[in-house]
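Hi support team,

I've been running sequence recovery on a batch of backbones for a student project. Most finish fine, but this one hangs at about 90% for roughly twenty minutes before it completes. I'm not sure whether the input is malformed or the queue is just slow. I've pasted the structure tokens below so you can try to reproduce it. Let me know if you need the job ID as well.

Thanks,
M.K.
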């Protein structure tokens, strides 16, 4: 085994979906780990720390497979579901005697869901469904090693069954996707029952009462596309007594006078170096891009702070966009990055089966999109049909090129106009906006046609 692999990572999806080109698995709440099984066993975490010594029962892998590299999740099962807190407690044992005690108390399992190499030959360029077949023939199950089951097509139904059993959610994976080592890819999508976000702890407030010796709340942040820290709120609930003690100990070694962001409304603030990552449950995102009703869930020991980005709290649904495209064949963009400070719009001339124009307006981290068959109107008395289509990533505002035959929207895409815009009104059935482009300028209005299907709108030029 000459290769070392970094795990392929999944992007977030807010809603489940069903598609014949995807498979669906349980999302296991544990530690991601790559296992190198040869004459000896090496198990590496996402941040490339050796884990085999902490979990000696996984030596069973040496009897179940040979000369392979596997991808999976280390979990502790209790009452029929993964217990992340028990796993976290288990991982904190350092001395041999403590590890032995913990292994008897909280025995771990390794759930294998992918095979990356066999007999010295890399398999990552094979389609996922082929790797699954090889995995099933190559690795036996044991007392601590299991193969992850999956189903095809019926993602929405599977999600319902999984969440009714109080499991975290599912992972959707494209059947024909290669293994993109070290990449957070739209070919894998995680769909959780509870909204969660992995945050960096940038500071804390002083505690009072029974928390006087620890802290009151954690000050949370994420990195934007320019790697600048963005404040997304504070969390003061969900902590066990052990959490309060352990976090307070960690704070002593990472205090700093450097202020990551200004928080005039919060007093008695203590700042920390961005070293600690934690998982936060929340209900929704406010208009100010803050977490609503956040609750501490646990530390994320296997995630680097720079991986915690604002893309996680993108509220718009890009699932239809992802599911309609094979990004191994089309060069269309796959994420949601933004470099401009202003709100942008774009109109793209799309030579597909029929020539039409795609109007896209930036909102909530994506491009809200409409297909306009007869083009953009320039006179107030001309109204044009605009058919609402799936949201597109921000990068699509710069996309020009040829979408290959056989792909969704096959044909040539050219930028017809591009610029910034201001919004006067954006409601469910009416959008009034003022684009500032080379061709499209002044007041424009979109009105939903209620008597028709919900996707049809009228676009017209307003009187300035």
């Amino acid at each position: 085994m000459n290769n070392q692999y970094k795990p392929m990572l999944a992007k977030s999806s807010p809603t489940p979906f069903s598609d014949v080109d995807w498979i669906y698995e349980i999302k296991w709440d544990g530690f991601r780990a790559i296992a190198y099984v040869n004459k000896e066993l090496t198990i590496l975490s996402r941040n490339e720390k050796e884990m085999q010594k902490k979990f000696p029962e996984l030596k069973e892998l040496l009897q179940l497979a040979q000369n392979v590299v596997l991808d999976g999740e280390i979990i502790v099962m209790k009452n029929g579901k993964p217990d992340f807190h028990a796993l976290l407690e288990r991982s904190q044992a350092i001395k041999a005697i403590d590890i032995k005690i913990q292994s008897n108390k909280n025995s771990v399992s390794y759930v294998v869901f992918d095979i990356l190499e066999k007999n010295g030959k890399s398999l990552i360029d094979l389609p996922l469904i082929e790797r699954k077949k090889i995995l099933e023939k190559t690795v036996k199950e044991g007392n601590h090693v299991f193969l992850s089951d999956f189903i095809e097509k019926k993602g929405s139904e599977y999600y319902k069954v999984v969440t009714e059993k109080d499991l975290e959610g599912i992972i959707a994976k494209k059947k024909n996707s290669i293994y993109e080592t070290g990449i957070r890819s739209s070919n894998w999508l995680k769909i959780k029952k509870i909204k969660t976000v992995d945050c960096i702890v940038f500071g804390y407030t002083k505690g009072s009462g029974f928390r006087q010796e620890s802290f009151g709340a954690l000050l949370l942040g994420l990195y934007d596309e320019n790697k600048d820290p963005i404040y997304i709120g504070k969390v003061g609930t969900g902590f066990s007594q052990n959490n309060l003690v352990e976090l307070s100990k960690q704070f002593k070694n990472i205090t700093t006078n450097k202020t990551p962001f200004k928080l005039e409304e919060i007093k008695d603030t203590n700042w920390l170096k961005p070293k600690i990552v934690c998982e936060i449950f929340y209900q929704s995102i406010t208009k100010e891009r803050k977490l609503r009703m956040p609750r501490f869930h646990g530390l994320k020991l296997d995630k680097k702070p720079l991986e915690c980005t604002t893309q996680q709290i993108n509220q718009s649904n890009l699932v239809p966009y992802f599911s309609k495209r094979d990004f191994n064949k089309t060069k269309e963009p796959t994420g949601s990055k933004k470099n401009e400070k202003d709100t942008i719009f774009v109109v793209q001339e799309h030579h597909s089966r029929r020539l039409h124009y795609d109007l896209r307006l930036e909102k909530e981290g994506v491009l809200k999109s409409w297909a306009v068959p007869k083009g953009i109107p320039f006179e107030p008395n001309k109204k044009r049909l605009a058919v609402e289509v799936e949201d597109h990533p921000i990068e699509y505002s710069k996309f020009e090129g040829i979408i290959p035959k056989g792909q969704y929207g096959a044909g040539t895409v050219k930028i017809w106009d591009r610029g910034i815009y201001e919004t006067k009104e954006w409601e469910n059935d009416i959008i009034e906006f003022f684009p500032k482009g080379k061709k499209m300028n002044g007041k424009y209005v979109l009105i939903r046609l209620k008597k028709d299907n919900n996707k049809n709108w009228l676009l017209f030029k307003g009187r300035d």
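--
Follow-up from support: It reproduced on our side and the slowdown came from queue contention, not your input. The chain has a mean pLDDT of 90. No action needed from you.
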